[in-house]
Each structure stands twice: as structure tokens, then as C-alpha cells.
Amino acid sequence: MCGRFTLILDPEELRSELQIGEIPALYTPRYNIAPSQPVLAVVDPTTREPIFLRWGLVPSWAKDIEIGSRLINARSETVPEKPSFRSAFMRRRCLILADGFYEWQKSTSASKHSLPYYFYLKKHRPFTFAGLWEIWHSPEGDELHTCTILTTDANPLLQPIHERMPVILNADQRWKWMEPKTTIAELTALCAPYPAEEMDAHPVSTRVNSPSADSSELIRPAAGLFP
User: Fold this and answer.
1) Model's pTM, two decimal places?
2) Active-site residue, from 2, 94, 147, 191
């Protein structure tokens, strides 16, 4: 599962590296993006303009937005069949901007907290998660745009920490993911684990456990060795 991530790079670096449009003026670097908070995403492959979506997908048929807290991730292997995701999978795929994410290693001792790790691409390059997005209308007629991050099996770097990882799309894959004519078989193939040799990781402070924490200290290496 992917429950927290970062987006801290300069807007011009994001534009250049990801080949996307203008970053919204409201963008600020975030060291601890949490569910229900705004995330930057590209939903239109033609304009490639990033917009803000609420993290936690709310299907169009949902009675209220509470379901979003349970749909922050979607298993890539089952999204074509799941009622909550299949419509978005076929029609509303998106790219969620990021430059790192956190995962927690469960403690073998009941008295200890899980240990958080920070994962990122080498040279700390920005990347995109494979995502799905939806439009939900409130009873009052207001629109809410929400999203979820797809997950896949963990690569060898993540396996000691967690059995799943977010689907990361490289430059050759991200616009294929957005192409309306891409087949289900092709989409499924894009959801493979990202190459471990292109990533790095290190343990970080448990301060990241608090959604209100948001500073550069959160991604600094903590004492301890990566397994």
C-alpha cells in the first residue's frame, strides 16, 4: 500500500523532467502528503496540465465521500473487475506527480512501532504514479474530483519492507497509460514493479507518522541500516 508520499521539487524541474504543463500557482513543496489531501495530477494527455485532486477515490455512485478514505489505493491486478474502479480504469486514468514515497516495516515486537522508510528514484528524479480519478456530485450539486494510486507487487528493494508498492510509470510509459486506445492487456503490462536498481531508500524518523508533520526533516536518514 502507498499511504504517504512527497512532492518537493521546483516547478520548473517538474515541468522539464515530466514534460507536463504549467504547475498551478498554489503548488507548494510537500514532505508528507496524506490521504484526503490535495495531490497534483494530470488527467488530460492533450493539455498535460496538472490539477489538484483529493486523494481517496469516491465513485460517482457513492452516497457520501467517506468511502474515499478506504480507496486511497487500488490493486492493479483487479481494477478491471472491481465496481469501485472499473469505470475509471477504462475512462479516467491519470498521472499523479511525486518524487518519493514512504512505506512502513512492521515490527516483530508488539512493543515497538513500525519503522518508516523513504523510497525514491536515484538522483531524486520526479516520477508519476499510475492513478485513476473520478467526479462525484454532492446532493447539493457540488463537484468533487478524487483519485487513487494503483499498486503492484513489491520489487526486490521493497520486499524486505512491504509486499506491495505503488505503480511507477517512466517516461516511455506514462503517456501510454493515458492513451484512450491502450488495451487492457497493455495497461496491465504497464503495472509491473519498477526496477529496483533505479531506486534508493533509507529509514526515516517516525515523525512522518503524523499527517500534520511536513518538513524536510522527515526525509533525512534516521539511525539504522537498510536491510
Assistant:
1) 0.95
2) 2
Q: Is 103 a catalytic residue?
A: yes
Supply the DSSP symbol for 178.
H
The pairing of beta strand 164-166 with beta strand 143-153: antiparallel
**Active-site pick, 81, 94, 103, 197:** 103
Distance (Å) of CA 200 to CA 122, 129, 167, 193, 204: 6, 17, 16, 14, 13
Residue with cell 536515484: 122
- Among candidate residues 108, 103, 151, the one with its CA nearest the CA of residue 131: 151
- In the predicted model, is pLDDT for residue 224 greater than 60? no
CB half-sphere exposure, 163, CA atoms < 13 A: 1
The verdict on whether 147 is a catalytic residue reads no
Q: Are strands 50-55 and 143-153 parallel, antiparallel or unpaired?
A: parallel
pLDDT at 227: 45
